[in-house]
Amino acid sequence: MAEIRLCERKSFRQSIEFGISVLGAGDYATFRGESLDISPDGLGLLSEYPLVQGMVVRLTLPVDGVGIPVPVFAEVSRVIPVGNRFRAGLRFFK
After folding, report:
1. Of 1, 66, 73, 86, which has the maximum CB count within 10 A?
2. Among 47, 22, 19, which residue's Cα sits nearest to residue 33?
3. Residues 69-83: what's their mean pLDDT?
C-alpha cells in the first residue's frame, strides 16, 4: 500500500538534538541525530538511539533568520532499522 502524504517533504540534512522523558523515572535524556527531510507535518530522523512508535520527543531545530534553536515536540509515527541506526518518521504536534 502506497504511503499518502499531505505535504511535500524537502531535504533538510542537519545534526539536531532531541530528547525524551523516561516515564515514571522523571529522567530526561538528550541525544543527537541527523535530520533527513522536513515538511510542515513532520521530519525524518536518522539516529543511533532506538526510538519507538508512539514516543514523544522534543527536538531542537535551527530556524533561518531566528539565530537560536527552536524547541518542537513530535510523535514517533514509524521506525525502520537501517544497519546499526534507526530511521524514524516524526509527526509535529500542532
Report:
1. 86
2. 47
3. 94
